[in-house]
């Protein structure tokens, strides 16, 4: 086992703390530190893709979740050692694992050797308060979406799989490529891409909530209205990516399945356009933050969290 910490240009003492951990634990558990501010190499990303950090749009900014995860995956020492599993967990800075998470997920993968990844149910914590219920229960996702998420994440029910609860086999990234390089929606793009490339692909899942998804713990996951502009912008780019992926893999699906996916993408564009109108009204001072959040929930028919 090894721990890789990706410091995505943090302004606090993250690097100092990691170096202290290296001195304390490195003999037992290797701890690697990656500074994205110093990373300037290209790396292969499976399926003829390349992660090109030098060509990033905003080199002065933080990389974001997708590129930061890709840095860690690229340097991970995942070769099998004495029968150990060849797996990767990407834990975001604001999420937590429950006791037993690794044991349960590793056992699942050992018992299901053809499954490329497994994820767990989650508890949800919003601004310090844990919600009553869990992700699977509140989202009410049917079985087919738990096993396979081939749809835009703008159509209810919401995406049940969240990256900090996922344990991947390393071969998954070799087969389907690394995370999308955009600042948002990198999770849903990867699930869609993988499921489109392989119609027989099925995800493993564990119904126990063995991880905690936290909104408001850091700026990475927040409900700020000001960030809606980027959410809409990259949401539209995500739908363009979905369209291209679907076109490239259309021969693997029936005509009816392709038409269904196209309809979901069109509906997603429509919902983003509605949200853009709401955002513009907020920018003009015509709506309060509370009204924007309410309308956003209505547009996407998302779960209203029982805070």
Key traits:
307 residues, six-stranded mixed sheet, single chain, alpha+beta, two-stranded parallel ribbon
Count of DSSP H/I helices? 10
Number of strands: 10
SSE class: alpha+beta
Order of helices and strands: EHEEEHEEHEEHHEHHEHHH
Query: How much is the radius of gyration in Å?
Result: 20 Å
Poorly predicted spans: 44-60
Largest sheet: 6 strands, mixed
Shape: globular
How would you explain this protein's 3D organization?
This protein is of the alpha+beta class. Helices cover 41% and strands 17% of the residues. It is built from 10 helices and 10 strands. The protein has helices at 14-25, 65-75, 101-111, 135-139, 143-147, 170-176, 186-197, 228-248, 255-283, 289-300, and strands at 3-7, 31-35, 42-44, 50-52, 87-89, 96-97, 117-126, 129-134, 166-169, 204-215. The strands form 3 sheets. Strands 5, 6, 7, 8, 9 and 10 form a 6-stranded mixed sheet that branches. The chain has a two-stranded parallel ribbon with strand order 1-2. It has a two-stranded antiparallel ribbon with strand order 3-4. It is globular and about 55 Å long.
């Amino acid at each position: 086992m090894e721990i890789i910490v990706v410091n995505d240009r943090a302004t606090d003492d993250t690097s100092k703390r990691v170096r202290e951990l290296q001195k304390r634990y490195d003999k037992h558990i290797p701890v690697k530190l990656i500074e994205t501010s110093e990373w300037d190499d290209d790396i292969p990303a499976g399926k003829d893709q390349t992660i090109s950090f030098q060509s990033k749009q905003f080199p002065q900014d933080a990389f974001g979740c997708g590129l930061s995860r890709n840095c860690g995956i690229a340097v991970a020492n995942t070769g099998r050692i004495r029968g150990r599993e060849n797996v990767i967990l990407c834990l975001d800075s604001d999420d937590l694992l429950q006791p037993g998470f690794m044991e349960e997920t590793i056992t699942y993968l050992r018992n299901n050797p053809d499954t490329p990844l497994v994820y767990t149910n989650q508890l949800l914590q919003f601004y310090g308060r844990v919600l009553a219920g869990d992700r699977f229960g509140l989202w009410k996702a049917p079985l087919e979406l738990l096993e396979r998420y081939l749809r835009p994440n703008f159509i209810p029910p919401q995406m049940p799989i969240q990256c900090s609860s996922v344990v991947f086999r390393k071969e998954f990234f070799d087969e389907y490529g690394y995370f999308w390089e955009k600042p948002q929606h990198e999770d849903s793009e990867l699930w869609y891409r993988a499921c489109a490339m392989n119609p027989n692909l099925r995800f493993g899942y564990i119904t126990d909530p063995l991880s905690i998804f936290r909104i408001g713990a850091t700026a990475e996951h927040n409900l700020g209205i000001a960030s809606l502009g980027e959410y809409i912008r990259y949401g539209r780019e995500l739908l363009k990516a979905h369209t291209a992926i679907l076109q490239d893999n259309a021969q693997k699906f029936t005509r009816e399945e392709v038409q269904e996916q196209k309809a979901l993408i069109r509906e997603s564009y429509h919902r983003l356009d509605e949200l853009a109108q709401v955002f513009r009204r907020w920018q003009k001072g015509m709506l309060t933050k509370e009204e924007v959040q309410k309308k956003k929930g209505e547009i996407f028919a998302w779960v209203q969290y029982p805070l």
